[in-house]
Amino acid sequence: MKSLTISDSVTLTTLSNEEYHGCVCCIAPNGEFTVLKEDIRPGFSTFQMIRNDIIKKIAPCENSKVEPLKTELPSNYISIINDREEVAVNKIKSSLHCWGTNVTPMGQATFNFIHKTHPNCRWNGSNIEVMGITVAPPYLPENCIGTDQRALERIRRVIEKFQERIQKQKSC
């Protein structure tokens, strides 16, 4: 098969004799597919993703009506990338308190479940602390300790609900 390069204007014929016309705008790094861009009217384009293993023939497209791909980067692209990086780093930093160290996968899953309804929960070593209640390993309702009875019952119910979901998933 003829080698394609980005921005080639081509007609691709498949094994089922379907023809696709357009400008090559993407070739998958693994070589599994090619994406063609075809302009349908000014400012509007369609994109066809075609698996390379079904391409029978590649021919140059003589009367291509495809505008060339715009590959210029905006003048402020470095600041755009830096801003995106900063947002991503801040998001990770703000969620660090949600990752337990040296805890079991079940402990982390229990924390994640509690955190959905009580985002103020935190790890304290291998214990989960929420609403003045401490949940110790193995993170079962009977491992909850605290003086506030209402909060204690609430967290026990949340953990019971989590345990029920785990049991339901295991039975399916």
From TrEMBL:
SMART domains: AD
Superkingdom of the organism of origin: Eukaryota
Start and end residues of each AD domain: 74-167
InterPro entries recorded: AD (IPR047574), Lsm12-like (IPR039683), LSM12_ABD (IPR019181)
Regions crossing the membrane: none
Protein name stated in the entry: AD domain-containing protein
Taxon lineage: Eukaryota, Sar, Alveolata, Apicomplexa, Conoidasida
